[in-house]
Design brief:
heterodimer, A: about 375 residues, mainly alpha, B: about 300 residues, two-stranded antiparallel sheet, 16 helices, globular
């Protein structure tokens, strides 16, 4: 099996795609067939199945030496388990089916997110060589001027980007609501969502580009300054302006997201409410604040949350645009740099700080879901 | 902003309709139209500028800004040629991007739709709590998972030198690490979004099937999967775009030969100056696939976005 895998790995990239996907699906189909022809009545079989759904992934794990295959088999077993229920009403095969549906996702989540999160917590108290050093990594972070700037920047990103992009997205959604060519206008602003942060960063590098005074400018921003009679500025060298210019890139990308969600929410506000407010003699601005905003509040929360999280994790933009520029660091980027310098402990400590910053958002949202599920 | 208010007291059906119409129209008053035009132009110019830059001759790019093309129109495809077939070819990374994105879209979808079904329609003890935990995992920064997952992939798990529990993924081919990483990181959100959609399927339909003796497997295959195809399709588009546009996972998990185009471009920008006239063409090639996907499948894309988001 391992040989097969490494043989596939040596194929050209495009040839690997169908092979791997087909293997993934074929394995599922094979086991489905086996299950279809197997007898399945009685308590004994239930026990056998329950044991099997734990033992088989473990066995694969041991035999093949690969989480990848264990996960694949777990996924396949999942397929098997629910097919078992084809001939059985709820009761006999239920537990098996349930495990089948959930096991693949659970195995991967535990391996890929739960275990690493715990391990990162532990790593943050270890030196890069693996010795326990208590809170030294955190002390290092909070005693360095640079790191404090990084943390400050991250917090500014989370405050500025969600608010600005939500505000612009909301305004735009309101302005173009029910106008002619609405879909076209939406597509224009939504388009940057499809562009990678790396692509967006390159786009904006050309906008912020700088040449000395007197030379012809190829950066749009400086050209505009020159057209208005000013002298060109080396934008990305200006602290703290440069951080905000990097934020513009993320705002450019995220506004479309905010606009699409809020536009749909606005259309969901009952027209009767609008009319009632209008009959009461309110003006457009009052209706916006008193009818539209309350009507879309839950969507507003979702949009701000999502963009906040994106801003906390922002990394690509700073890396592609700001690496060489002063005081533009953010936590997510510093982490990767530290990791690439084999500073596992310090990198992990930053990860923990990042997690602590995200935690309030997690708790708030988990509460929201809980409320919703109680209503349901 | 003032015209409709005076007409408001009229109550009879017709003028009520007219007032409604006027409300709608006033939301698109002239000021608002101008503002939205300004935003639309501001949001579009950067991309247009990049495209125009990418089709200008090398010397022109260095000498003047892209807007000069309107004064001195010279168009060439030499940058694209250089980027695709030259010594700094991005062709390899481009193909790598495809090889990474397609499987990394299929795997999480299959796994997540199963889990989402269980969370939506299979009652079990502690279901809500576990669901919220899975949701919370979505917000755990991926960065937290990088270090341990990387060492798990590269070193494996060993009791001692003779007893290897698992050898790691490095032997398993160029892309396996990236596929697995993307699959794992996509799961929490995929489960959450698909669950929102699947749980909205009317309970009567499921109930009727159960009364007729259908098992969970049959319900999943014959009712849930066909009905939630729009959501699955839109998440597929989403996941494809995310994976295609990703840089973080690529930097950590994709070895040199498996570099996708985002990483290759990132490295090219690192040497800003030497080859930077190639950057616009390279960047445009990297965004052309997402843009095609985006514009051709926009309708599904937005629907999927809304299925998960407006409910929260």
């Amino acid at each position: 099996m391992k040989d097969l895998l490494s043989a596939i790995g040596k194929l050209p990239p495009l040839a690997q795609i169908p092979i791997v996907i087909l293997l993934f699906l074929a394995a599922a189909a094979l086991v489905l067939f086996l299950i279809e022809i197997a007898p399945r009545k009685g308590r004994t079989y239930t026990i056998i199945r329950a044991v099997a759904c734990i033992l088989i992934p473990v066995a694969v794990f041991l035999l093949l030496g690969s989480v990848w295959w264990a996960a694949a088999v777990a996924a396949v077993l999942g397929g098997v388990f629910f097919v078992l229920d084809y001939r059985q009403k709820e009761g006999t095969g239920y537990l098996f089916a349930l495990a089948g549906f959930l096991a693949p996702a659970f195995v991967l989540l535990v391996i890929g997110l739960v275990y690493p999160t715990i391990q990162t917590l532990i790593n943050s108290f270890l030196s890069s060589r693996g010795n326990f050093i208590g809170f030294d990594n955190f002390v290092w972070i909070f005693s360095s001027e640079n790191n404090l700037v990084t943390i400050r920047n991250t917090i500014i990103w989370v405050l500025v980007v969600p608010i600005v992009s939500t505000a612009i997205g909301l305004a735009y959604a309101v302005f173009i609501d029910r106008s002619r060519g609405e879909r076209f206008f939406k597509a224009l602003v939504f388009m940057p969502m499809a562009i990678s942060f790396v692509g967006a960063s390159i786009i904006f590098r050309f906008i912020y580009a700088y040449r000395e005074e007197g030379q012809s400018q190829y950066g749009l921003l400086n050209q505009i300054v020159v057209w208005f009679g000013g002298s060109p500025v080396n934008w990305l060298q200006q602290v703290p302006l440069n951080s905000f210019l990097l934020m513009v890139v993320l705002i450019w990308v995220q506004t479309g997201f905010a606009m699409v969600i809020l536009s749909a929410a606005i259309k969901g506000v009952p027209a009767e409410q609008m009319e009632a407010a209008q009959l009461d003699g309110t003006n457009a601005w009052q209706r916006f604040w008193n009818v539209t905003i309350p009507g879309i509040s839950s969507s507003l929360v979702v949009v701000i949350t999502t963009i906040s999280i994106a801003s906390l994790k922002v990394f690509d933009i700073v890396r592609t645009m700001g690496m060489a520029y002063p005081d533009t660091g953010v936590i997510a980027n510093d982490m990767v740099s530290l990791l690439q310098n084999f500073e596992t402990g310090r990198s992990s400590a930053f990860a923990v700080i990042l997690f602590l910053l995200v935690l309030p958002i997690v708790i708030f949202n988990a509460r929201q879901i809980q409320k919703q599920r109680e209503i349901r | 902003m003032t015209t409709a208010v005076s007409a408001a007291p009229a109550i009879d059906e017709r003028s009520f309709r007219a007032a409604t119409k006027r409300t709608k129209r006033r939301l698109t008053s002239r000021g608002a139209t101008i503002a939205s035009l300004v935003i639309a132009v501001l949001w579009t110019i950067p991309t247009v500028g990049l495209f125009v830059t990418s089709i200008r001759p090398r010397d022109e790019i260095i000498r003047t800004g892209w807007w000069e093309i309107f004064v001195n129109p010279t168009v060439t495809f030499e940058n694209y040629e250089a980027v695709l077939f030259g010594s700094e070819s991005l062709m390899g990374p481009f193909i790598n991007s495809i090889a990474i994105s397609l499987p990394a879209t299929v795997f999480p979808l299959v796994i997540a739709s199963m889990a989402a079904y269980a969370f939506a329609w299979m009652p079990f003890k502690g279901r809500d709590t576990i669901f919220i935990l899975v949701f919370a995992l979505q917000i755990v920064p991926i960065q937290m998972a990088l270090v341990p997952l990387l060492s798990l992939f590269s070193r494996g798990v060993k009791l001692d030198n003779d007893n290897v529990i698992y050898e790691g993924l490095q032997q398993a081919g160029l892309f396996s690490q990236v596929w697995v990483a993307h699959t794992i990181f996509a799961l929490p959100l995929a489960i959450f979004l698909l669950h929102n959609f699947i749980s909205q399927i009317p309970g009567d339909v499921i109930e009727a099937a159960r009364v007729d003796g259908a098992s969970h497997g049959q319900i999943f295959f014959r009712i849930v999967l066909p009905l939630s195809l729009p959501a699955i399709a839109s998440f597929a588009i989403f996941q494809f775009l995310w994976v295609w546009n990703d840089l973080l996972v690529a930097i950590i998990f994709a070895g040199g030969q498996a570099s996708p185009i985002t990483r290759a471009l990132g490295e090219l920008t690192g040497e800003f100056g030497r080859n930077w006239q190639l950057l616009p063409a390279g960047a445009f090639i990297s965004i052309i696939v997402p843009l095609i996907v985006f514009f051709s499948l926009q309708r599904y894309f937005v629907r999927g976005l809304l299925a998960g988001s407006t409910k929260g």
